[in-house]
Design goal:
Elements: E1 3-6, E2 11-15, E3 18-21, E4 24-28, E5 45-47, E6 52-56, H1 65-68, E7 71-72
Antiparallel strand pairs: 1-6, 2-3, 2-5, 3-4, 6-7
Length: about 80
């Protein structure tokens, strides 16, 4: 399960592996996985393009947009809503 960390028109910034959206900290990208393999690093500073989403997981080691970049909003299959 991933949540939208930054939506179209919001400002995404990545500085030294630390990601923020409109000034709110989203998380840090890790340099390597648990087996020591190097991880790709998504590099972007600017407004999230129309039709794109920057997704983040709740776990610090989540493999999400910090590594693979934006997804297209029309590829989202399901939405989760809080129960209360």
């Amino acid at each position: 399960l991933k949540k939208v960390g930054c939506a179209p028109g919001q400002r995404l910034s990545a500085v030294e592996g630390k990601f923020s959206c409109d000034g709110h900290f989203l998380g840090r990208a890790l340099a390597q996985d648990s087996k020591g393999n190097r991880l790709p690093q998504f590099i972007f500073n600017g407004l999230v393009p129309a039709g794109s989403l920057f997704m983040v997981g709740s776990h610090p080691r989540s493999y999400d947009s910090r590594y693979f970049g934006f997804i297209h909003a029309d590829t989202v299959l399901k939405k989760a809503y809080p129960l209360w």
